[in-house]
# Entry
Amino acid sequence: DPEMRHKFFTLYHDSIGKTLFIRLQYIISHQEWESLSDVFWLKQGLDLLLAILVEHEPITLAPNSAQVPPLMASGGVPERAGMQLPSDAPEEADSSPPSFVGVVNKHVRFLNEMSKLQVADLVIPLRELAHTDANVAYHMWVLVFPIVWATLQKEEQVTLAKPMITLFSKDHSKQQDKRPNVVQALLEGLSLSQPQPKIPSELIKFLGKTYNAWHIAISLLESHVMLFPQETRCFDALAELYRTLNEEDVRFGLWKRRTITPETRAGLSLVQHGFWQRAQDVFYHA
# Structure
């Protein structure tokens, strides 16, 4: 019941601070999600984050959006004869083919209507859609979380790092058979965030294997291997995931990054191609 849910959410919304840090801290550490453990509860968290957007601002494109050059020099769409039909102009008959002027006039009306849209016209329907479809909520969380994380101060990110590890360490067993599930969304949102909070490698490996988040866990561990090349735990966890997925070539490539002598690299290459006796000889003489 959307109306009843909206009434409850209004009380929920009014009782929590209106900053992104407080909202994210509440989602990660303060709220206990045990009662909703069998559903995709991140849609409630997403609702909390989107509810504090300035809804009456006009919608604008991001600075890095792909745009085509304008047809007109500047000043928006001109309202002159031949470019915009009056409101009482008769519509073209369905049976007749559309004329060029009719197509342009229709597009002008569309652009004028879209230029008046505000943030609320887009966000409110998306919030409702996220409550009805877990896939929409999943993709929206993965999109929104890295943006929210990037706006936090360094101290705020450090404050949220440990509670995030605690959240990952909790029992999410009821999410194992869900597709998508909360753990997948949390891990993927984390993997796209900069800077990434450091999660223990063994925990990432466990989450990837248990909650069918293999490719997300591998991506996270690969970034950890590049950031912390001296930590053998990252290499071991990543190698274990490669071995479980039977990605032997990639696993041998990972082991070659850990080697010191050229003889060891040569021996690993021989093992990779099945020359066991020659590889054994190389290792013995290394």
About this structure: The mean pLDDT is 88.
